[in-house]
TrEMBL record:
GO terms for molecular function: electron transfer activity; heme binding; metal ion binding. Residues 1-30 form the signal peptide. The lineage of its organism: Bacteria, Pseudomonadati, Bacteroidota, Flavobacteriia, Flavobacteriales. This is C-type cytochrome. Gene3D superfamilies: Cytochrome c-like domain, Cytochrome C3. The keyword Transmembrane helix applies. The chain crosses the membrane at residues 165-184, 217-238. It comes from Flavobacterium hiemivividum.
Length: 439
């Protein structure tokens, strides 16, 4: 009798070929939707230039006014509809004089805004004010509405064929292919049997695990290797106990160091002022936040990122207001505050002594040395491992700054002669003594 190879390989090749043909045939269904043309309605500029007006508004008015929300002063969008231009010129250039003259409109505006005097801007010409008013007269840009007939996921595409129908057809075709392959395999087996052809069975081989178990040398070498690898990983695991490098918790109020320390270049020690004079850097109080956010109730459009939208940042500012008890509509404190449960990130053991002022004020070390490039962090994390080895390595490499530090003058002269160096490291000046860091 004749012997032939296993026909399963042929059926697999047939299945793969049919699948490839089916995949390439589906390209006829893919069509891209044509972009809709966006149109913008023209905005009246009242004789001024809104582009220049925006620049003037941001440099002169934005500290106290917003376009669509009350701040220290009233919202200014559409202000031209409430007052005539001659009155606006007098108000902007010298509001105090206008109020003193008894002008009813000026007195009303003054009283409605908690009697907070407006800064006079005599340097702004009437044309400058025209530009600002033109900017405030622009209509608010609303989010574009959904275009009629647009493609919606799960509904239909431009060809008029539902996506669900296409997926159902594909599933049906795949099921038919499977059935056809099973039938073809059965037919081939019957034909082979009718013609006296014997299908050669697969040769039996010894399983790998059994062959491995029969070799004493391989078992011995593998056991030793397994013990060494296990000891290595156990040691590494134990050495990482208490090490929280890259720990990045979610805080109750989202605070972006990237925006504050990076984009706005706020000095670290403005918020963490205790780092200059105290052992701890301290968590800034919410009053420090309100120094700026009393006038900043929302972020700029350019602040938004693909991950965090403008609405997200604005909502976090609202959380700050709720915690500190600030009513942005009336621009006053309500007296109803609530604590913010910040999650601590850097936490040294109780037996370790670390003094921020000694490193920041005396040694002049930058915050980024230990805390990493915080100006790039959206969420603050633990940059350094803060292990004993990491601290010792820094003491061995860091030269002591002698400029303007008379405390180290005498000891530096003596130790520099002893070690034969011009500059001493923190380690050479006792930075490795146990009592320096441990009680």
């Amino acid at each position: 009798m004749k012997k032939v190879g296993n026909h399963n390989s042929n059926s697999r090749k047939l299945f793969v070929s049919l699948a490839l043909m089916l995949t390439f045939s589906l390209t006829s269904f893919a069509q891209d939707a044509a972009p809709a043309d966006a149109t913008e309605a023209p905005v009246a500029t009242l004789g001024g230039d809104p582009v220049k007006g925006k620049e003037l508004f941001n440099s002169n008015c934005a500290a106290c006014h917003k376009l669509d929300a009350k701040s220290t002063g009233p919202a200014l969008r559409g202000i031209a509809e409430k007052h005539d231009m001659p009155w606006m010129y007098k108000w902007v250039q010298n509001s105090a004089a206008l109020i003193k003259s008894g002008d009813k409109a000026a007195v009303k505006v003054f009283e409605e805004n908690n009697k907070v005097p407006m800064t006079a801007f005599p340097a702004l010409s009437e044309s400058n004010i025209d530009d600002i008013i033109a900017y405030t007269s622009e209509k608010k840009v609303e989010a574009p509405a959904a275009v009629a007939g647009a493609v919606v996921a799960g509904e239909s595409n431009q060809s008029g064929i539902s996506d669900t129908v296409i997926l159902g057809a594909l599933a049906l075709v795949m099921a038919m292919l499977v059935v056809m392959l099973v039938l073809v395999n059965n037919v081939l087996r019957k034909v082979a049997k009718a013609n006296g052809i014997v299908i050669e069975p697969k040769a039996k081989t010894t399983p790998i695990w059994k062959a491995f178990a029969q070799s004493q040398f391989l078992v011995l070498v593998s056991s030793i290797l397994l013990l060494l690898v296990s000891a290595y990983f156990v040691y590494g695991f134990l050495m990482q106990v208490g090490v929280d490098q890259n720990y990045e918790p979610i805080q109750p109020i989202h605070f972006s160091h990237k925006i504050h320390a990076g984009d706005n270049e706020i000095n670290c020690k403005y918020c963490h002022s205790a780092a200059r004079v105290s052992k701890n850097a301290g968590i800034p109080s919410l009053n420090v936040c309100m120094n700026c956010h009393k006038s900043i109730a929302e972020v700029a459009e350019t602040t938004a990122t693909p991950e965090y939208s403008k609405a997200f940042y604005d909502e976090e500012i609202n959380k700050l207001y709720a915690a500190v008890g600030w009513d942005k509509s009336s621009q006053s404190y309500t007296g109803k505050s609530q604590p913010v449960k910040w999650v601590r990130i850097h936490n040294l053991p109780d037996f370790v002594y670390f003094n921020h002022s000694q490193h920041v004020s005396v040694a002049g070390i930058e915050c980024q040395t230990c805390h990493g490039p915080v100006e790039t962090y959206e969420l603050q994390k633990q940059f350094a491992p803060l292990t004993m080895g990491w601290c010792i390595d820094c003491h061995r490499k860091t030269d002591v700054k002698m400029e303007g530090n008379e405390y180290y003058t005498k000891i530096h002269e003596e130790l520099s002669k002893k070690y034969g160096v011009e500059k001493l490291t923190a380690a050479q000046m006792g930075g490795l003594e146990c009592g320096k860091c441990h009680y």
